[in-house]
Every structure is written in structure tokens, then in C-alpha cells.
Amino acid sequence: MDILCRSMLFEGKAIVTAINCTETAEKARQIHNTSKSATNALARVLAMGVFMSAGFKGLKHKLTLIIRGGGAGGNIIVCGDCGSKVRCRMDNPDCLAGDEIAPVSDVIGADGKLTVIKDFGLKEPYNGMVNLVNGSVDADFAYYFTVSEQLPSAIATGVKLADDGSVEAAGAVIVQPMPNCPPEIVETLADVVRNFKDMDELVATHTPTTLIEEYFGHFENKPLQPTYPAYVCSCSREAMERILVSMGEKDAEEILEQNGVIEFHCDFCHKTQQFTKEDVKKIFEAANDKNNDSDRE
Ligand SMILES: [Zn+2]
Fold first, then answer.
1. What pTM was estimated for this model as a whole?
2. What is the pLDDT of residues 38-77, one digit of tens each?
3. Which H or E run includes 38?
4. CATH number at residue 266
5. Do 219 and 78 have their domain in common?
6. Measured in angstroms, how far is the CA atom of residue 261 from the centroid of ligand 1?
């Protein structure tokens, strides 16, 4: 089972997070049929989505990460709901196919932007955007946290693939200071992360707990409740019905005339919902009834 572990360091002055999101990344690979190179890059962005949605409290809290880097993989989108329930899509999942795993930056591209949208169900969602540093994910997100959230962070993601391209291990370690953290502690912790020799191997040989113990156990340490990440799509027939209603009855009828059926495809789980002429009739009847009811109120 995937797990995200956190521990307070130096009496709460900093926090280390270690993530194992192997099953989440493998599910993404299966859904999107990604090449080895695409899996290797996408799993790292997914790990960041897992990290950034772990602290969300309510069902209304939504995370969206958008990377437009100009790499072979095209644009990448990762969405996250509370408890690290994530999903993703990328433009070219079959990019750079073959046994050779291309550098992450070849898939993502280094010339573009990382956009972070955090919607807490309030009027205006939080929206942060930075230029990509080098398309490696680690440096790009570290730069984002430093510049946009004033949290100078150290980030290392790791991915190991089996010969058949399936995900053997995927995860990340993130160290973030609290606002009152002295710079020397930030530097000490960043140094630990910098000295990880082979992060791809580390995530394959360690659980989040043993990783934190081995590398951060000698600092004052207080473990917090873990989170259990998973690949979960938020699409549903009900949501598609709402989209259908928002299209308007006239446009829906036009599509039915042309195609005989209306289909909605979800880019995040590749499920398709079909609406026949009878379905559409019922949906608009119900919607119109509801409108009439609310008019009377
Ligand atoms: Zn879906």
C-alpha cells in the first residue's frame, strides 16, 4: 500500500516527508499506457501531487499542477484531492518509447512554466506560477516552494522501473522549514537531501519510515499521522450529466442529430460515458423540473 510519512524535526522547526507512491504511479502507467521515459517523469510529478494534497482537509480542497515545459511528453496535469488522492494526464504518454529511459527534462522540457492552483472552495483559488528551472521536477518544485510559498525546500524524487516498464518503486523525500526555522537548520537538512547518492535506488530499498529513520533519525524527531495516497478519478456519470445540462438542450439535440449519441471521455481515467436520446430527454426533463421548482421558491 502507498504511504506518505511525515516527521517534525528540531522541535517543529522543520518537517520531513517521505513518500512511497509506487501503486499510484503504476496505476497511472496502466491507464495512460506510458512509455518508460514518460512513466519515469510522470511518476515524479505525481509524487509532488501526492505531497501537496496530503494536507488538504476537506472535500472542497482541490490541487491542480500544470506543467507546460515544451518537452516530448507535452503538457502534464496532475490533480489532487484531500488525503493524496491524485490523478493525471499527459499529452504524449508514448513519447520517447523504447528501453532507454530518457532524462526527465527531455520528457518535461526545460523552457516553460509550472502552475500551481490550490482551490479551497473560497471565492478565488490560490494561483502560483514559476518558470521551470531545468525540467527535472526536483529543482522546479523546490524553486516553486521557495519563490511562491517562501518555503526553501529540498526535494528528491525517485523512480525505478522493471524491465517490462512497470513501476517497481516511486517516491520522494521533501524537507521543508517552518516559517521560524533558522537558516542553519534549513542548510543542514538540505545537505542531507543533496547527499542522497541514488534516489531511484533509495525508494526501491527503503520504506518511508526506514528512509526517515536512516537519514533523519539522528535529529530530534516526532512522527505525525501517515496519509495513504491512491490514484482516484473524480469523474462520474452525475458530473457528466451536469456538463450536459450546462451545454443546453439545443446543442445537445444537435449532437444527437449528428452522432445518434453523446459521449464524454475522461482524460484522467479514459472512461467514456454515453448518453442516448432517451437519456438526454430524461436529464433535461429533470433539470427543467428542478428549475421550475426553484423559480417557485
Ligand atoms: Zn475519470
1. 0.92
2. 999 999 999 999 999 998 988 889 999 999 999 999 999 9
3. helix 36-53
4. 3.90.1280.10
5. yes
6. 19
